[in-house]
Specification:
The protein is mainly β. The chain contains one helix and ten strands, in the order E-E-E-E-E-E-H-E-E-E-E. The strands form two sheets. Strands 1, 2, 3, 6, 7, 8, 9 and 10 form an eight-stranded antiparallel beta sheet that branches. A two-stranded antiparallel ribbon has the order 4-5. The mean pLDDT is 87.
């Protein structure tokens, strides 16, 4: 027999992805979309010269983290992305800690990811089309030096 909605086990359904929050430093920011949360460990292949096996051994190497992309609507006099991007100068950038949190139906944090030493690497403004019927969206890509689950 199915459980009523209020009593339903928390392990029955996966979490939804449309309710999340983003904190850049100590300020909360509102975004339409966050993509690119990824980590990868490079593999090093090695074979000893006197090995009787005719194959290599794989060992873990350096970790790589993909850039994270944030999208949000453009509002009048909203220059937040541009202020962050313009703070980046040759070989210097104000690096920030960013925390991305997945929220449940009560807006409680269920799971959070932390980006270490993040800084803007790319900004893109929406295409302009006279026959379009959609909001304007700007995109910012952030490079970072570490992704961890809190």
């Amino acid at each position: 027999m199915a459980e009523p909605g209020k009593e339903q086990s928390k392990t029955t359904w996966p979490l939804v992805k449309f309710q999340f929050s983003v904190k850049i430093g100590d300020q909360e920011a509102i975004f339409q979309e966050v993509t690119g949360l990824s980590a990868e460990t490079q593999q090093i292949e090695y074979r000893k010269g006197n090995s009787k096996e005719f194959s290599t051994v794989k060992i873990p190497g350096i970790q790589k983290f993909g850039n994270v992309t944030f999208k949000k609507g453009i509002f009048k006099d909203d220059k937040g992305f541009w202020d962050l991007y313009n703070a980046v100068k040759m070989n210097t950038a104000e690096r920030k800690v960013i925390v991305i949190s997945l929220l449940d139906e009560n807006n409680d944090v269920v799971m959070s990811w932390r980006l270490a030493n993040a800084f803007p690497s790319k900004i893109t403004v929406t295409d302009m089309k006279s026959d379009a019927n959609e909001p304007t969206v700007e995109t910012m890509e952030l490079a970072h030096e570490g992704l961890s689950l809190l």
